[in-house]
Write a structure and sequence with these properties.
The protein is mostly helical. The chain has 11 helices and no strands. This is DMT family transporter.
């Protein structure tokens, strides 16, 4: 692992974590009638706290793209998952709650899982696969699953809906990260003309906007502790699948390495859940179906 990739990825995670907390602080007061509507973004643009959170998120995405330009997706994605540590840090400052056993256990599992996966897997780059069928099977399957989760979330938006939306957004962001890396390679090889002549940058934009609507809808209907763990867990899993599936990323595949990689991913997911459910995470505002006329605060 190169130091620049580590610094860029962790800096991206910091911006993303802080940005998510600020966005949820604002989105929780949005009108429920804006659920899963682009109008939600227009309403939130009027809230300075949300705009600040978005600025941090954009900075995080830019730093993440720079990290992807110098490192493998299978390496960068687990590092980006540490955004939850920074989200918890800001939330803890807002609520004044100590970490306690749950917080320290989650922190240890997340950090240890990332370390175990990276050390055991030793992600390396390879030649991207040119088989279009494989590309579309992986991308289509991931996006299709995200659409299915979104459809289910519409029918249960005030119960498990926020979790399903966050999972869907995480899957889309994982694919977006993969296509961001492809777009960076196209720009390096062919400049601006080479970049704009491909479909990938437009897909990156579409996935980003769609994911943003899903995330903000999850933030507006439930506490951060319900949505952020699912978002943070789904994104690296989808990104790693794309990296190995069609970008040519390679991991060690001997029995011992595979066992440690699986344990590392499991520890990452469990650590994310423990941190996401920590009492320091903002509790949010309880909403009911008749709250469509709530004013922005």
């Amino acid at each position: 692992m190169s130091v620049p990739v580590l610094v860029l990825a962790v800096s991206a995670a910091c911006c993303l974590g802080f940005g998510f907390v600020l966005q949820q602080n604002a989105a929780q007061r949005a009108p429920l009638g804006d659920f899963l509507s682009p109008r939600l973004l227009l309403d939130l643009m009027k809230v300075p706290r949300w705009v600040g959170g978005m600025a941090l998120m954009v900075a995080g995405m830019a730093l993440g793209a720079a990290a992807l330009g110098h490192g493998e997706l299978s390496l960068v994605e687990p590092l980006l998952a540490t955004n939850l540590l920074f989200a918890l840090t800001l939330s803890r400052h807002q609520t004044g709650r100590p970490l306690g056993r749950q917080g320290w256990a989650g922190l240890a599992l997340l950090a240890g899982g990332v370390t175990a996966f990276v050390v055991a897997g030793q992600p390396t780059g390879g030649r991207a696969l040119t088989d279009p069928l494989r590309h579309w099977l992986i991308i289509g399957g991931t996006v299709g699953l995200a659409m299915l989760l979104t459809g289910c979330a519409k029918r249960s938006r005030l119960t498990v809906g926020p979790v399903l939306l966050a999972l869907a957004a995480g899957l889309l962001y994982g694919v977006q990260d993969a296509l961001t890396r492809v777009s960076g390679q196209r720009f390096t090889d062919g400049g601006l003309a080479g970049l704009l002549s491909g479909w990938q940058p437009y897909a990156v934009l579409a996935l980003g906007v769609t994911g943003l609507v899903l995330v903000q809808s999850a933030f507006e209907t439930a506490p951060l502790r319900m949505s952020l763990p699912a978002l943070t867990a789904a994104q690296p899993l989808a990104g790693i699948a794309c990296g190995i599936g069609f970008l040519g990323d390679r991991l060690r595949t001997d029995t011992g390495a595979l066992a440690w990689e699986a344990c590392g991913l499991a520890a990452i997911v469990v650590g994310i859940v423990l941190l996401g459910l920590h009492p320091a995470m903002p509790p949010g505002v309880t909403k009911r179906a008749h709250m469509g006329d709530v004013r922005m605060g």
